[in-house]
Structures are given as C-alpha cells and as structure tokens.
Specification:
Blueprint lengths: L17 H15 L11 H8 L3 H13 L3 E4 L3 E4 L5 H11 L3 H17 L1 H7 L2 H19 L5 H11 L6 H21 L7 H16 L3 H28 L4
Antiparallel strand pairs: 1-2
Helix pairs in contact: 1-3, 2-3, 4-9, 5-9, 5-11, 7-8, 7-10, 8-9, 10-11
C-alpha cells in the first residue's frame, strides 16, 4: 500500500462534461502523486466526493480509463494504476479511423514512413527462413495476378512476414490498423482494386530481391515504389466520394 501523502483532487465544474473531466483529473492525480503501476487509487465513493461529481460519472470515467489501459479494477480489492501499454490505444485506433477515407489516406502515409524508416533494421535481421516464406507468398501472388486478380490476404501476410524479425510490437500493430481500415473500406465504400495486379506483384518482388541482396538503396527504392499503387487507389476513392451527389 502506498502510504505517502497524496495531492487532493480538484473539484470539477458542473458546466463541464463530468465523466470526461473526471478522466482527466484522475490521470492528473496519478501524475501529481507519482503513482506507479500497482499503486492503489481511492475507491469510487472517495473519488466522487473529491471530484464533487456523482458515482455514475466516476464509474464512466473509470471504464474509459480501463479501456485505455491506465487503471484496472480488481474485484474485491478496488482500483489500481495499471502498467501502461500502447496495445489498448492501437487496438482501438482502427475502429476510430475506419469510417473516414481522408484518415485512411493519413494512416497510409504513417504506414509508409514507418516501413521506410525500418528498412535498415529489416536488412540487419533478415533470415533465410524469412526469405523463403516471402518467396512462397510471392509465388501465390504471381498465380493470382496472372489470373488478373489481387489478394489482399497475401499482401497483408507479405508485410507481416517482412517485419516479423524486427520484434517491434508497435510497428506490427500500426500495420494491422492499416489493414483493418483498408478491409473496412473494401466492405463499405467499394475500395478500388489494383488496375494491374501483375504490377502490384512485381513491386513486391522488387522488395524481396533487394532484401536478398542486402541492398539498402534498392530496398528503399522498392518500398517507395510500392507506395504508389495503394496511394493511387486511395486517391481514386477520395475523388469518387467527392464527386458523389449529396442525398
């Protein structure tokens, strides 16, 4: 139990959104008192009294903070500061962005800069087994492309394997967020498919050949070229939505 003297809560104005402001004050309380993961927080009744809000407002605030991975409620024990992780934020990011085409374009740009920035690391940790898996994916992509088709499943798997040895959970999560948004766009707003699946396949081939050669410059160029296809399709989608008549 943390026995040190703690800073008091600040009373919340009734004119503000009580639950949202309660969240901010609880976070501020954790920071002001330098609480660490596992340290206890006051019970709901004490929080409500200190913040001069209802227990319902505190309960809603706590639920939101639990969803963000900031606090945890332990049955029979009370509220505690949780070990912070980006997982909850990243897991919910896709849901928050998936209905806006402009934000799809924004997350695409973020994805590109992350992938481009990780190229040197990818080259440092590449293995023969990884190359073998990528070539197997390429072969499946080639077969589909020759039929004039494109497989988003194989494309997603390609990028998962490409970065699997980097051992960076945040990178993998952000890539997963992109694919979650992309697939939602496919379902909801008729995301355009590649006009030339074989060109899409060849852009992936260039990445693997550069990786096999441990050629940083070629890898950078291949990743930059890879961006063109999906960026073009997202731009087409944005333009199509702009031209749609209002209903």
């Amino acid at each position: 139990m943390n026995t040190k003297s703690k800073s008091a809560f600040k009373s919340i104005s009734r004119t503000k959104l009580l639950s949202q402001t309660a969240q901010e004050e609880i976070k501020d309380y954790i920071v002001r008192n330098a609480l660490k993961p596992g340290d206890p927080l006051p019970p709901e009744a004490e929080l409500a009294q200190g913040l001069t809000v209802s227990r319902n407002s505190v309960r809603e605030a706590v639920k939101s903070l639990e969803a963000l991975g900031i606090v945890e409620a332990r049955a029979g024990s009370g509220l505690f500061v949780k070990q912070f992780s980006f997982d909850s934020i990243l897991d919910n990011l896709g849901y928050g962005l998936q209905f806006d085409t402009k934000q799809l374009s924004d997350i695409l740009e973020v994805r590109y800069h992350i992938e481009y920035g990780m190229i040197e690391h990818v080259l440092q940790v590449v293995t023969d087994a990884q190359i073998e898996k990528l070539n197997a994916i390429l072969e499946r992509m080639r077969v589909v492309a020759e039929q004039g088709q494109y497989s988003a499943d194989e494309d997603q798997l390609f990028h998962q394997v490409l970065y699997e040895n980097v051992n960076n959970l945040v990178v993998r999560k952000i890539l997963d967020v992109f694919w979650a948004i992309y697939r939602n766009a496919q379902k909801r707003v008729a995301m355009p498919q590649p006009t030339n699946p074989m060109a899409t396949y060849l852009r992936h081939v260039a990445i693997v050949r550069a990786l096999e050669a441990h050629d940083l410059g070629a890898m950078q160029q291949a990743v930059a070229q890879h961006r063109i296809g999906i960026s073009t399709r997202v731009r087409m989608l944005e333009e199509a939505q702009t031209l749609q008549p209002e209903t």
